[in-house]
């Protein structure tokens, strides 16, 4: 097995089968080999520095109802808030003065002229306040191409829009099946981010009920095919006040997931 892993790690391009092999390893030795290779690629590609980002959660108001998410619109137990402009500017100034090179503004998903204007205005004001020395990443959901272009022109450089899984069937097991949660629109939005000139980021959850190792290999291939610039992958953590929790936590115990 270790010989197979070593051979795969010396290849320039990995097939889906190679990825499945790597993602399936269990032994500490094989895991170590993969981690060492990953570290080598990382240091050769982006160096050894770790860059800190300041994260501003601008608002937890969201119009969507993703079945796994604690701040989904239908969860009435959540106390909703939106930061004031002054609060955001104070946080941005703190990040700037404390040497953060980059800021992320994250929100629930809202589509309205007022929301577009608010984010645009904040981008302009943050840049004025911080001498144009901060790089700003947005994570503000699916929007029209025109909105993405406006935010790009106002000074945002990067945009995170996680697809959560690239398996269409699985996507609809963790999202309502309606126009507001369209898999195709999600992919179109990612393409529009690239058209607008953003460095586009996406990512997936790991350990979703019914998710397979093959799904995760397909996710990695998707990132490469789409030429994604930033990837965020994290564990699926159940939230008790969600439909997915009610439906799955007994059927698929966490230790039986990928
Ligand atoms: S769009 Fe984002 S914030 Fe809104 S419900 Fe879905 S995951 Fe949660």
Give the key terms.
single chain; 258 residues; alpha/beta; TIM Barrel; six-stranded parallel beta sheet; 6 strands; globular; binds iron/sulfur cluster
Task: Tell me about this structure.
This protein is α/β, with parallel strands linked by helices and 258 residues long. The chain has two domains: 1-49, no CATH class; 51-199, TIM Barrel (Alpha-Beta Barrel), CATH 3.20.20. The protein contains ten helices and six strands; from the N terminus they run H-H-H-E-H-E-H-E-H-E-H-H-E-H-E-H. The protein has helices spanning 2-10, 16-23, 28-46, 85-97, 113-129, 145-153, 168-174, 183-195, 213-225, 243-248; strands at residues 53-59, 102-107, 135-139, 156-160, 199-206, 230-235. Strands 1-2-3-4-5-6 form a six-stranded parallel sheet. Helix 1 runs parallel beside helix 3 (28-46), helix 2 crosses helix 9 and helix 4 (85-97) packs parallel to helix 5 (113-129). The radius of gyration is 20 Å and the shape is globular. Iron/sulfur cluster binds at residues 62, 64, 66, 69, 71-72, 108-109, 141.
């Amino acid at each position: 097995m270790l010989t197979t892993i070593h051979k795969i790690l010396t290849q320039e391009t990995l097939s889906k089968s190679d990825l499945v092999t790597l993602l399936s390893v269990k032994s500490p030795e094989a895991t170590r080999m993969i981690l060492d290779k990953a570290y080598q690629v990382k240091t050769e590609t982006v160096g050894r520095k770790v860059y800190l980002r300041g994260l501003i959660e601008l608002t937890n108001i969201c119009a969507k109802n993703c079945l796994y998410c604690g701040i989904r619109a239908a969860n009435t137990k959540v106390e909703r808030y939106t930061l004031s402009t002054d609060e955001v500017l104070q946080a941005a100034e703190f990040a700037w003065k404390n040497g953060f090179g980059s800021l992320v503004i994250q929100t629930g998903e809202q589509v309205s002229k007022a929301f577009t204007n608010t984010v645009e205005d904040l981008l302009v004001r943050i840049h004025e306040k911080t001498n144009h020395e901060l790089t700003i990443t947005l994570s503000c959901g699916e929007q029209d191409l025109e909105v993405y272009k406006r935010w790009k022109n106002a000074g945002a450089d990067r945009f995170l829009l996680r697809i959560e899984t690239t398996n269409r069937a699985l996507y609809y097991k963790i999202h309502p099946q309606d126009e507001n949660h369209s898999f195709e629109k999600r992919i179109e939005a990612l393409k529009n981010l690239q058209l607008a000139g953003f460095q586009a980021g996406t990512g997936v959850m790991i350990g979703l009920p019914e998710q397979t190792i093959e799904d995760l290999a397909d996710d990695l291939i998707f990132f490469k095919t789409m030429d994604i610039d930033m990837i965020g992958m994290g564990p699926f953590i159940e939230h008790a006040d969600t439909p997915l929790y009610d439906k799955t936590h007994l059927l698929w115990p966490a230790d039986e997931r990928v």
